[in-house]
Amino acid sequence: MPPVFDALGRRWYGRLADNANVYPEPTQAVAPVRNVGDGYLFATVNRWFKNDAGETWYEINGGEYIHEDDIRLVEPSDFQGVEITSQPERPFGWVVQDVVPSREPDGEPDEAFTELPRLTFVEIYDVVLGEEDWLWYDIGDGRWAKQTYFSLVDVNPRPEEVGENEFWTEVDLYEQTFAAYEGDRMVYATLISSGLNRWPTREGLFQVWDRWYEYKMSGAEGQVDYYYLEDIPYIMYFDELNGIALHGTYWHDRFGYKHSHGCVNMPIKDAEWTFNWSASAPNDLWVWVHTSDPTTHLE
Description:
mainly beta, SH3 type barrels
């Protein structure tokens, strides 16, 4: 499995089994130094190797070892959004579920069309209201598909609190997308994953108040939803009340769908771009979290 390379250097990550033992040496012949407990648990992996018995051991946290039966390496998404050099003329976005387009709204998939795999970039040329009030999108070349297959981005006006030369970002909870702006000009867009319905990401206009290149996150200790995530990259805290941040995400590839415990999960490359871009902002980065209305595309 290839490591993740970014400004933080080389990284491998692994999910730990519930109640896995961690040892001071790569052998189960010695007493464990700790047990990781139950939960959604991930660690950074420094290296791995086979011992004299032919077992693979993984070193985590420097001098701590875990047996191959108790860890599963994960491969972070290599998806990255788009830098935008001129203001978009129409809505655009990505396929979030493989789809074979139809020739007309409410039509059956037409096998004459090539299937569009998840994460294919699309532009929207027309929108109509179909059966059961679902929107259907014209994605060009005579192809139509239902709105449920896409997460879209569209240019939005700057919130009135944001200065005309300030940097700000938009998190769209309906579309599960992210856009970055300099004043009124969109400069970047990508997919995200916000909080699941049990742990919704709070709407509002916020400003980034703390930043970390890399740090751990944990929560709900002693509860069924306990999580412990080592070395999360490119963290930008914006909702101080709830401890919510924009940050890079290595443990899933479900961008375009809600998936988090409340934070805004971003592909690592997009979080890195946002972290570096916002460092040069003339202001503490604004973060506008809202739920869009897709029927505005009908206007």
